[in-house]
Amino acid sequence: MLHLPRFLERLFRRETSYSSESETSLFKRLHLHLTFWYSAVLGGALLIFCLVIYFSVQYLLFSSVRGELATQAQIIAGPRRESGSFCNRQQPPNPRPGPAIRPMPPRVLVACFDQSGQQLPTETANEQSFQALIPGEFLDNSLVKSALQRDNQTDIVDTGDTYGHIYRYAHVITNPETRTVEGVILIGESIAPQESALNILLIVLISTGGLVLLGAVAGGLFLSHRAMQPARLAFTRQQSFIANASHELRTPLTFLCANAEILLEERNYLPPEDVTLLEDIQTEATHMAALANNMLTLARLDMGDIKLHHEHDILDLTALAESAVRQGKALADQRDIHLRAEGPKPLYVIGDPILLEQTILVLLENAIKYNRPNGQVVLCTSQENDTVRLEVQDTGIGIAPEHLPRLGERFYRVDKARSRAVGGTGLGLSIARGIIRAHGGSLQFVSQPEQGTAVKITLPAMNAPLRPRVAEGG
Protein backbone atom coordinates (compact mmCIF):
# COMPACT_ATOMS: atom_id res chain seq x y z
CA MET A 1 0.00 0.00 0.00
CA LEU A 2 2.90 2.32 0.63
CA HIS A 3 3.85 2.15 -3.05
CA LEU A 4 0.35 2.83 -4.40
CA PRO A 5 0.81 6.62 -4.77
CA ARG A 6 3.91 6.07 -6.91
CA PHE A 7 1.98 3.61 -9.05
CA LEU A 8 -0.80 6.16 -9.54
CA GLU A 9 1.75 8.81 -10.44
CA ARG A 10 3.33 6.59 -13.11
CA LEU A 11 -0.10 5.65 -14.46
CA PHE A 12 -1.29 9.24 -14.66
CA ARG A 13 1.97 10.41 -16.18
CA ARG A 14 1.75 7.79 -18.90
CA GLU A 15 -1.91 8.51 -19.59
CA THR A 16 -1.47 12.28 -19.68
CA SER A 17 2.01 12.75 -21.17
CA TYR A 18 0.63 15.36 -23.58
CA SER A 19 0.59 19.02 -22.59
CA SER A 20 -2.17 20.25 -20.32
CA GLU A 21 -4.37 21.56 -23.10
CA SER A 22 -8.10 21.24 -23.28
CA GLU A 23 -9.53 18.55 -25.50
CA THR A 24 -10.76 21.09 -28.04
CA SER A 25 -7.45 22.92 -28.43
CA LEU A 26 -5.43 19.70 -28.42
CA PHE A 27 -7.37 18.00 -31.22
CA LYS A 28 -7.76 21.23 -33.17
CA ARG A 29 -3.99 21.61 -33.22
CA LEU A 30 -3.50 17.97 -34.24
CA HIS A 31 -6.21 18.36 -36.89
CA LEU A 32 -4.46 21.38 -38.40
CA HIS A 33 -1.03 19.72 -38.23
CA LEU A 34 -2.26 16.61 -40.07
CA THR A 35 -3.93 18.74 -42.73
CA PHE A 36 -0.84 20.91 -43.13
CA TRP A 37 1.54 17.98 -43.60
CA TYR A 38 -0.86 16.18 -45.93
CA SER A 39 -1.22 19.33 -48.06
CA ALA A 40 2.51 20.07 -47.91
CA VAL A 41 3.46 16.59 -49.14
CA LEU A 42 0.88 16.69 -51.92
CA GLY A 43 1.87 20.25 -52.83
CA GLY A 44 5.53 19.22 -53.05
CA ALA A 45 4.64 16.28 -55.27
CA LEU A 46 2.53 18.56 -57.49
CA LEU A 47 5.35 21.09 -57.74
CA ILE A 48 7.86 18.43 -58.79
CA PHE A 49 5.40 17.01 -61.31
CA CYS A 50 4.71 20.46 -62.83
CA LEU A 51 8.42 21.30 -63.03
CA VAL A 52 9.17 18.00 -64.76
CA ILE A 53 6.35 18.56 -67.27
CA TYR A 54 7.31 22.19 -67.95
CA PHE A 55 11.03 21.61 -68.48
CA SER A 56 10.42 18.45 -70.48
CA VAL A 57 8.17 20.32 -72.92
CA GLN A 58 10.63 23.21 -73.02
CA TYR A 59 13.47 20.82 -73.89
CA LEU A 60 11.43 19.15 -76.64
CA LEU A 61 10.40 22.47 -78.19
CA PHE A 62 13.89 23.95 -78.16
CA SER A 63 15.41 20.67 -79.37
CA SER A 64 13.26 20.82 -82.50
CA VAL A 65 14.36 24.43 -83.08
CA ARG A 66 18.01 23.46 -82.65
CA GLY A 67 17.63 20.56 -85.04
CA GLU A 68 16.00 22.77 -87.67
CA LEU A 69 18.70 25.43 -87.37
CA ALA A 70 21.48 22.84 -87.54
CA THR A 71 19.96 21.38 -90.72
CA GLN A 72 19.68 24.80 -92.37
CA ALA A 73 23.24 25.69 -91.33
CA GLN A 74 24.55 22.51 -92.97
CA ILE A 75 22.57 23.27 -96.16
CA ILE A 76 24.01 26.77 -96.30
CA ALA A 77 27.56 25.61 -95.58
CA GLY A 78 27.61 22.63 -97.98
CA PRO A 79 28.14 24.30 -101.40
CA ARG A 80 30.33 27.02 -99.95
CA ARG A 81 33.07 24.61 -99.03
CA GLU A 82 33.09 23.38 -102.63
CA SER A 83 33.45 26.87 -104.05
CA GLY A 84 36.14 27.88 -101.58
CA SER A 85 33.95 30.38 -99.81
CA PHE A 86 31.45 29.58 -97.05
CA CYS A 87 29.55 32.89 -97.12
CA ASN A 88 28.44 33.51 -100.70
CA ARG A 89 24.89 32.24 -100.60
CA GLN A 90 21.85 34.42 -100.35
CA GLN A 91 19.84 34.62 -97.15
CA PRO A 92 17.02 32.04 -97.18
CA PRO A 93 13.79 33.74 -98.19
CA ASN A 94 11.25 34.71 -95.57
CA PRO A 95 8.45 32.14 -95.72
CA ARG A 96 5.95 34.60 -94.23
CA PRO A 97 6.35 38.02 -95.93
CA GLY A 98 4.50 40.88 -94.30
CA PRO A 99 2.36 43.66 -95.78
CA ALA A 100 3.79 45.79 -98.55
CA ILE A 101 3.98 48.89 -96.36
CA ARG A 102 6.22 47.17 -93.78
CA PRO A 103 7.82 43.87 -94.81
CA MET A 104 8.19 41.37 -92.00
CA PRO A 105 11.80 40.53 -91.24
CA PRO A 106 13.03 37.09 -92.27
CA ARG A 107 12.06 34.24 -90.02
CA VAL A 108 15.60 32.83 -90.10
CA LEU A 109 18.58 35.14 -89.59
CA VAL A 110 22.05 34.27 -90.90
CA ALA A 111 25.44 35.89 -90.34
CA CYS A 112 28.95 34.69 -91.17
CA PHE A 113 32.15 35.09 -89.15
CA ASP A 114 35.76 34.27 -89.95
CA GLN A 115 38.13 32.14 -87.87
CA SER A 116 38.99 35.14 -85.67
CA GLY A 117 35.35 35.93 -84.85
CA GLN A 118 34.98 38.94 -87.16
CA GLN A 119 31.73 39.29 -89.10
CA LEU A 120 31.92 38.76 -92.87
CA PRO A 121 29.69 40.51 -95.45
CA THR A 122 26.73 38.42 -96.53
CA GLU A 123 26.09 38.24 -100.25
CA THR A 124 22.40 38.76 -100.69
CA ALA A 125 20.17 40.28 -103.31
CA ASN A 126 19.89 43.46 -101.27
CA GLU A 127 22.68 43.36 -98.67
CA GLN A 128 22.14 46.82 -97.16
CA SER A 129 18.41 46.20 -96.70
CA PHE A 130 19.12 42.82 -95.13
CA GLN A 131 21.80 44.17 -92.76
CA ALA A 132 19.39 46.84 -91.55
CA LEU A 133 16.90 44.14 -90.58
CA ILE A 134 19.34 42.12 -88.41
CA PRO A 135 19.33 43.34 -84.77
CA GLY A 136 22.61 44.03 -83.03
CA GLU A 137 21.86 41.52 -80.27
CA PHE A 138 21.85 38.71 -82.84
CA LEU A 139 25.24 39.81 -84.28
CA ASP A 140 26.96 39.69 -80.88
CA ASN A 141 30.00 37.45 -81.48
CA SER A 142 30.27 36.00 -77.96
CA LEU A 143 28.56 32.79 -79.07
CA VAL A 144 30.83 32.65 -82.14
CA LYS A 145 33.99 32.86 -80.03
CA SER A 146 32.65 30.16 -77.74
CA ALA A 147 31.94 27.93 -80.75
CA LEU A 148 35.47 28.44 -82.09
CA GLN A 149 36.81 27.10 -78.81
CA ARG A 150 34.24 24.37 -78.03
CA ASP A 151 32.61 23.42 -81.33
CA ASN A 152 28.94 24.15 -82.14
CA GLN A 153 27.11 26.19 -79.50
CA THR A 154 23.58 27.56 -78.82
CA ASP A 155 22.06 30.31 -76.73
CA ILE A 156 19.03 32.61 -76.52
CA VAL A 157 19.19 36.41 -76.88
CA ASP A 158 16.50 39.04 -76.43
CA THR A 159 16.13 41.50 -79.31
CA GLY A 160 13.29 43.45 -77.73
CA ASP A 161 10.31 44.34 -79.91
CA THR A 162 12.10 43.45 -83.14
CA TYR A 163 12.04 39.66 -82.90
CA GLY A 164 11.67 38.98 -79.21
CA HIS A 165 13.77 36.06 -78.03
CA ILE A 166 15.94 34.46 -80.72
CA TYR A 167 17.42 31.01 -80.47
CA ARG A 168 20.93 31.19 -81.96
CA TYR A 169 23.02 28.32 -83.30
CA ALA A 170 26.71 28.76 -84.12
CA HIS A 171 27.90 26.20 -86.71
CA VAL A 172 31.66 25.86 -87.12
CA ILE A 173 32.90 25.46 -90.74
CA THR A 174 35.92 23.18 -91.06
CA ASN A 175 37.94 22.52 -94.23
CA PRO A 176 37.56 18.79 -94.95
CA GLU A 177 41.03 18.50 -96.44
CA THR A 178 43.19 20.54 -94.06
CA ARG A 179 40.99 20.09 -90.96
CA THR A 180 41.34 23.80 -90.26
CA VAL A 181 38.56 26.10 -89.14
CA GLU A 182 37.43 28.48 -91.85
CA GLY A 183 34.75 30.34 -89.96
CA VAL A 184 31.36 30.16 -88.26
CA ILE A 185 27.82 30.42 -89.58
CA LEU A 186 25.55 32.05 -87.01
CA ILE A 187 21.91 31.20 -87.65
CA GLY A 188 18.92 32.12 -85.50
CA GLU A 189 15.17 31.87 -85.32
CA SER A 190 12.52 33.62 -83.24
CA ILE A 191 11.08 31.34 -80.55
CA ALA A 192 7.97 33.44 -79.92
CA PRO A 193 5.63 30.53 -80.86
CA GLN A 194 7.45 28.20 -78.50
CA GLU A 195 7.39 30.75 -75.69
CA SER A 196 3.67 31.32 -76.26
CA ALA A 197 3.07 27.57 -75.98
CA LEU A 198 5.17 27.42 -72.79
CA ASN A 199 3.25 30.34 -71.26
CA ILE A 200 -0.05 28.60 -71.96
CA LEU A 201 1.32 25.39 -70.44
CA LEU A 202 2.51 27.30 -67.37
CA ILE A 203 -0.91 28.91 -66.87
CA VAL A 204 -2.60 25.52 -67.22
CA LEU A 205 -0.20 23.89 -64.75
CA ILE A 206 -0.56 26.68 -62.18
CA SER A 207 -4.34 26.83 -62.39
CA THR A 208 -4.77 23.07 -62.36
CA GLY A 209 -2.23 22.61 -59.59
CA GLY A 210 -3.89 25.33 -57.51
CA LEU A 211 -7.30 23.74 -57.89
CA VAL A 212 -5.89 20.32 -57.03
CA LEU A 213 -4.11 21.75 -53.97
CA LEU A 214 -7.29 23.46 -52.76
CA GLY A 215 -9.13 20.19 -53.18
CA ALA A 216 -6.34 18.45 -51.29
CA VAL A 217 -6.65 20.88 -48.39
CA ALA A 218 -10.40 20.35 -48.24
CA GLY A 219 -9.94 16.61 -48.49
CA GLY A 220 -7.18 16.73 -45.88
CA LEU A 221 -9.45 18.52 -43.45
CA PHE A 222 -12.13 15.91 -43.98
CA LEU A 223 -9.78 12.91 -43.78
CA SER A 224 -7.89 14.21 -40.74
CA HIS A 225 -11.20 14.86 -39.00
CA ARG A 226 -12.27 11.29 -39.70
CA ALA A 227 -8.89 9.97 -38.61
CA MET A 228 -9.02 11.92 -35.33
CA GLN A 229 -12.41 10.58 -34.28
CA PRO A 230 -11.06 7.32 -32.79
CA ALA A 231 -8.32 9.24 -30.99
CA ARG A 232 -10.85 11.77 -29.69
CA LEU A 233 -13.07 8.93 -28.43
CA ALA A 234 -10.10 7.24 -26.73
CA PHE A 235 -9.06 10.56 -25.21
CA THR A 236 -12.54 11.17 -23.82
CA ARG A 237 -12.76 7.68 -22.37
CA GLN A 238 -9.31 8.04 -20.84
CA GLN A 239 -10.18 11.32 -19.17
CA SER A 240 -13.50 9.94 -17.96
CA PHE A 241 -11.70 6.96 -16.45
CA ILE A 242 -9.16 9.19 -14.69
CA ALA A 243 -11.88 11.49 -13.38
CA ASN A 244 -14.07 8.59 -12.21
CA ALA A 245 -11.15 6.72 -10.65
CA SER A 246 -9.96 9.84 -8.83
CA HIS A 247 -13.48 10.59 -7.62
CA GLU A 248 -14.00 7.03 -6.37
CA LEU A 249 -10.63 7.02 -4.59
CA ARG A 250 -11.37 10.13 -2.54
CA THR A 251 -14.02 8.56 -0.27
CA PRO A 252 -12.06 5.45 0.85
CA LEU A 253 -8.93 7.53 1.29
CA THR A 254 -10.81 9.95 3.49
CA PHE A 255 -12.04 7.08 5.65
CA LEU A 256 -8.55 5.60 5.74
CA CYS A 257 -7.07 8.87 6.98
CA ALA A 258 -9.83 9.26 9.56
CA ASN A 259 -9.44 5.69 10.87
CA ALA A 260 -5.67 6.03 11.11
CA GLU A 261 -6.08 9.30 12.99
CA ILE A 262 -8.57 7.71 15.43
CA LEU A 263 -6.19 4.82 16.11
CA LEU A 264 -3.29 7.20 16.64
CA GLU A 265 -5.27 8.96 19.38
CA GLU A 266 -4.77 5.77 21.41
CA ARG A 267 -1.08 5.53 20.63
CA ASN A 268 -0.23 5.15 24.31
CA TYR A 269 -1.94 1.77 24.32
CA LEU A 270 -0.33 0.53 21.11
CA PRO A 271 3.05 -1.09 20.55
CA PRO A 272 5.66 1.30 19.14
CA GLU A 273 5.92 -0.62 15.85
CA ASP A 274 2.14 -0.31 15.34
CA VAL A 275 2.30 3.42 15.99
CA THR A 276 5.02 3.77 13.36
CA LEU A 277 2.99 1.73 10.88
CA LEU A 278 -0.13 3.82 11.49
CA GLU A 279 1.81 7.04 11.03
CA ASP A 280 3.14 5.74 7.71
CA ILE A 281 -0.39 4.75 6.69
CA GLN A 282 -1.72 8.19 7.57
CA THR A 283 1.08 9.94 5.70
CA GLU A 284 0.64 7.86 2.55
CA ALA A 285 -3.15 8.07 2.69
CA THR A 286 -2.95 11.85 2.98
CA HIS A 287 -0.57 11.95 0.02
CA MET A 288 -2.87 9.68 -2.00
CA ALA A 289 -5.90 11.84 -1.19
CA ALA A 290 -4.07 14.97 -2.38
CA LEU A 291 -2.95 13.11 -5.51
CA ALA A 292 -6.51 11.91 -6.25
CA ASN A 293 -7.87 15.46 -5.86
CA ASN A 294 -5.20 16.85 -8.19
CA MET A 295 -5.81 14.12 -10.76
CA LEU A 296 -9.52 14.89 -10.71
CA THR A 297 -8.86 18.60 -11.21
CA LEU A 298 -6.47 17.97 -14.11
CA ALA A 299 -8.88 15.53 -15.75
CA ARG A 300 -11.58 18.19 -15.62
CA LEU A 301 -9.18 20.73 -17.07
CA ASP A 302 -8.30 18.38 -19.94
CA MET A 303 -11.97 17.75 -20.72
CA GLY A 304 -12.68 21.49 -20.65
CA ASP A 305 -15.19 21.20 -17.82
CA ILE A 306 -13.52 23.88 -15.73
CA LYS A 307 -13.19 26.25 -18.67
CA LEU A 308 -16.82 25.82 -19.67
CA HIS A 309 -18.44 25.75 -16.26
CA HIS A 310 -16.32 27.96 -13.98
CA GLU A 311 -18.03 31.03 -12.60
CA HIS A 312 -17.54 34.35 -14.34
CA ASP A 313 -17.37 36.92 -11.56
CA ILE A 314 -15.72 40.32 -11.46
CA LEU A 315 -12.89 39.96 -8.95
CA ASP A 316 -10.33 42.19 -7.33
CA LEU A 317 -7.01 40.42 -7.86
CA THR A 318 -5.30 42.41 -5.09
CA ALA A 319 -8.00 41.35 -2.63
CA LEU A 320 -7.53 37.73 -3.71
CA ALA A 321 -3.79 38.05 -3.05
CA GLU A 322 -4.45 39.50 0.42
CA SER A 323 -6.86 36.65 1.16
CA ALA A 324 -4.23 34.10 0.10
CA VAL A 325 -1.68 35.80 2.37
CA ARG A 326 -4.02 35.44 5.35
CA GLN A 327 -4.53 31.75 4.62
CA GLY A 328 -0.81 31.08 4.19
CA LYS A 329 0.29 33.02 7.25
CA ALA A 330 0.17 29.99 9.56
CA LEU A 331 2.43 27.92 7.29
CA ALA A 332 4.77 30.89 6.82
CA ASP A 333 5.03 31.44 10.59
CA GLN A 334 5.96 27.78 11.10
CA ARG A 335 8.92 28.23 8.75
CA ASP A 336 9.86 31.78 9.89
CA ILE A 337 8.92 33.28 6.51
CA HIS A 338 7.84 36.91 6.24
CA LEU A 339 4.74 37.11 4.06
CA ARG A 340 3.01 40.19 2.66
CA ALA A 341 0.92 41.45 -0.27
CA GLU A 342 1.28 44.80 -1.99
CA GLY A 343 -0.13 46.56 -5.00
CA PRO A 344 -2.82 49.01 -6.07
CA LYS A 345 -6.43 48.26 -5.31
CA PRO A 346 -8.75 47.44 -6.97
CA LEU A 347 -7.50 45.51 -10.02
CA TYR A 348 -10.47 43.87 -11.73
CA VAL A 349 -10.42 40.58 -13.61
CA ILE A 350 -13.16 38.17 -14.68
CA GLY A 351 -12.92 34.63 -13.39
CA ASP A 352 -13.77 32.01 -10.84
CA PRO A 353 -12.75 33.15 -7.33
CA ILE A 354 -12.27 29.61 -6.03
CA LEU A 355 -10.07 28.51 -8.92
CA LEU A 356 -7.98 31.68 -8.99
CA GLU A 357 -7.54 31.54 -5.22
CA GLN A 358 -6.48 27.91 -5.54
CA THR A 359 -3.86 28.93 -8.09
CA ILE A 360 -2.47 31.68 -5.89
CA LEU A 361 -2.35 29.32 -2.89
CA VAL A 362 -0.42 26.72 -4.93
CA LEU A 363 2.20 29.29 -5.90
CA LEU A 364 2.29 30.72 -2.39
CA GLU A 365 2.73 27.28 -0.84
CA ASN A 366 5.66 26.49 -3.14
CA ALA A 367 7.28 29.85 -2.37
CA ILE A 368 7.05 29.12 1.37
CA LYS A 369 8.12 25.45 1.25
CA TYR A 370 11.19 26.10 -0.90
CA ASN A 371 12.33 29.20 0.97
CA ARG A 372 14.96 29.74 3.65
CA PRO A 373 14.37 30.52 7.33
CA ASN A 374 13.78 34.26 7.80
CA GLY A 375 13.10 34.53 4.08
CA GLN A 376 10.46 36.64 2.38
CA VAL A 377 7.52 36.03 0.08
CA VAL A 378 5.86 39.02 -1.57
CA LEU A 379 2.68 38.98 -3.67
CA CYS A 380 2.77 42.00 -5.99
CA THR A 381 -0.15 43.06 -8.19
CA SER A 382 0.00 45.57 -11.03
CA GLN A 383 -1.76 46.55 -14.24
CA GLU A 384 -0.28 47.27 -17.66
CA ASN A 385 -2.59 48.36 -20.46
CA ASP A 386 -5.26 45.66 -20.80
CA THR A 387 -3.59 43.05 -18.58
CA VAL A 388 -3.38 42.55 -14.83
CA ARG A 389 -0.36 40.84 -13.31
CA LEU A 390 0.17 39.05 -10.02
CA GLU A 391 3.76 38.14 -9.18
CA VAL A 392 4.81 35.80 -6.36
CA GLN A 393 8.40 36.62 -5.39
CA ASP A 394 10.46 34.66 -2.88
CA THR A 395 14.02 34.65 -1.57
CA GLY A 396 14.33 30.88 -1.68
CA ILE A 397 16.77 28.40 -3.14
CA GLY A 398 15.91 29.26 -6.74
CA ILE A 399 15.73 27.01 -9.78
CA ALA A 400 18.47 26.15 -12.28
CA PRO A 401 17.88 27.41 -15.84
CA GLU A 402 17.68 23.91 -17.32
CA HIS A 403 14.60 23.16 -15.18
CA LEU A 404 12.59 26.28 -16.05
CA PRO A 405 11.20 25.06 -19.44
CA ARG A 406 9.80 21.93 -17.76
CA LEU A 407 8.08 23.61 -14.84
CA GLY A 408 4.38 22.90 -15.06
CA GLU A 409 4.80 19.41 -16.52
CA ARG A 410 2.87 16.77 -14.64
CA PHE A 411 4.82 15.03 -11.85
CA TYR A 412 7.96 16.94 -12.75
CA ARG A 413 9.96 17.92 -9.67
CA VAL A 414 13.22 19.85 -9.59
CA ASP A 415 14.32 18.18 -6.34
CA LYS A 416 12.32 14.95 -6.10
CA ALA A 417 13.63 13.99 -2.66
CA ARG A 418 12.79 17.35 -1.12
CA SER A 419 9.45 17.59 -2.93
CA ARG A 420 8.46 14.23 -1.50
CA ALA A 421 9.61 15.29 1.98
CA VAL A 422 7.43 18.41 1.96
CA GLY A 423 4.42 16.49 0.63
CA GLY A 424 4.43 17.58 -3.01
CA THR A 425 2.81 15.54 -5.77
CA GLY A 426 4.26 17.34 -8.78
CA LEU A 427 0.81 18.41 -10.01
CA GLY A 428 0.32 21.79 -8.33
CA LEU A 429 1.98 23.88 -11.05
CA SER A 430 0.20 21.86 -13.76
CA ILE A 431 -3.13 22.67 -12.13
CA ALA A 432 -2.18 26.32 -11.74
CA ARG A 433 -1.15 26.60 -15.38
CA GLY A 434 -4.33 24.87 -16.55
CA ILE A 435 -6.54 27.19 -14.48
CA ILE A 436 -4.76 30.30 -15.76
CA ARG A 437 -5.07 29.11 -19.36
CA ALA A 438 -8.77 28.45 -18.79
CA HIS A 439 -9.05 32.13 -17.78
CA GLY A 440 -7.24 33.33 -20.92
CA GLY A 441 -3.99 34.17 -19.10
CA SER A 442 -0.41 32.93 -18.93
CA LEU A 443 2.04 31.69 -16.29
CA GLN A 444 5.75 32.54 -16.44
CA PHE A 445 8.72 31.54 -14.27
CA VAL A 446 11.85 33.61 -13.67
CA SER A 447 14.48 32.22 -11.31
CA GLN A 448 18.17 32.15 -10.47
CA PRO A 449 19.83 29.55 -8.22
CA GLU A 450 20.32 30.82 -4.66
CA GLN A 451 18.62 34.12 -5.56
CA GLY A 452 14.94 33.25 -5.42
CA THR A 453 12.08 32.73 -7.84
CA ALA A 454 9.37 34.94 -9.34
CA VAL A 455 6.18 33.44 -10.77
CA LYS A 456 4.12 35.82 -12.89
CA ILE A 457 0.42 35.41 -13.55
CA THR A 458 -0.97 37.54 -16.39
CA LEU A 459 -4.74 37.86 -16.86
CA PRO A 460 -6.99 40.03 -19.05
CA ALA A 461 -8.05 43.14 -17.16
CA MET A 462 -11.65 44.11 -16.53
CA ASN A 463 -11.87 47.88 -16.21
CA ALA A 464 -15.40 48.22 -14.87
CA PRO A 465 -16.56 50.30 -11.86
CA LEU A 466 -18.55 47.39 -10.45
CA ARG A 467 -18.45 45.99 -6.96
CA PRO A 468 -16.37 42.81 -7.01
CA ARG A 469 -17.16 39.60 -5.24
CA VAL A 470 -14.16 38.15 -3.46
CA ALA A 471 -13.96 34.81 -1.72
CA GLU A 472 -12.63 35.32 1.77
CA GLY A 473 -10.38 32.63 3.12
CA GLY A 474 -10.93 31.06 6.49
UniProtKB/TrEMBL annotation:
<keyword id="KW-0472">Membrane</keyword>
<keyword id="KW-0902">Two-component regulatory system</keyword>
<dbReference type="GO" id="GO:0000155">
    <property type="term" value="F:phosphorelay sensor kinase activity"/>
</dbReference>
<dbReference type="InterPro" id="IPR004358">
    <property type="entry name" value="Sig_transdc_His_kin-like_C"/>
</dbReference>
<dbReference type="InterPro" id="IPR005467">
    <property type="entry name" value="His_kinase_dom"/>
</dbReference>
<keyword id="KW-1133">Transmembrane helix</keyword>
<dbReference type="Pfam" id="PF00512">
    <property type="entry name" value="HisKA"/>
</dbReference>
<dbReference type="InterPro" id="IPR003661">
    <property type="entry name" value="HisK_dim/P_dom"/>
</dbReference>
<keyword id="KW-0418">Kinase</keyword>
<keyword id="KW-0597">Phosphoprotein</keyword>
<dbReference type="Pfam" id="PF02518">
    <property type="entry name" value="HATPase_c"/>
</dbReference>
<keyword id="KW-0812">Transmembrane</keyword>
<feature type="transmembrane region" description="Helical">
    <location>
        <begin position="200"/>
        <end position="223"/>
    </location>
</feature>
<feature type="transmembrane region" description="Helical">
    <location>
        <begin position="36"/>
        <end position="57"/>
    </location>
</feature>
<dbReference type="InterPro" id="IPR050736">
    <property type="entry name" value="Sensor_HK_Regulatory"/>
</dbReference>
<feature type="compositionally biased region" description="Pro residues">
    <location>
        <begin position="92"/>
        <end position="101"/>
    </location>
</feature>
<dbReference type="InterPro" id="IPR036890">
    <property type="entry name" value="HATPase_C_sf"/>
</dbReference>
<protein>
    <recommendedName>
        <fullName>histidine kinase</fullName>
        <ecNumber>2.7.13.3</ecNumber>
    </recommendedName>
</protein>
<feature type="domain" description="Histidine kinase">
    <location>
        <begin position="244"/>
        <end position="463"/>
    </location>
</feature>
<feature type="region of interest" description="Disordered">
    <location>
        <begin position="82"/>
        <end position="101"/>
    </location>
</feature>
<keyword id="KW-0808">Transferase</keyword>
<dbReference type="InterPro" id="IPR003594">
    <property type="entry name" value="HATPase_dom"/>
</dbReference>
<dbReference type="InterPro" id="IPR036097">
    <property type="entry name" value="HisK_dim/P_sf"/>
</dbReference>
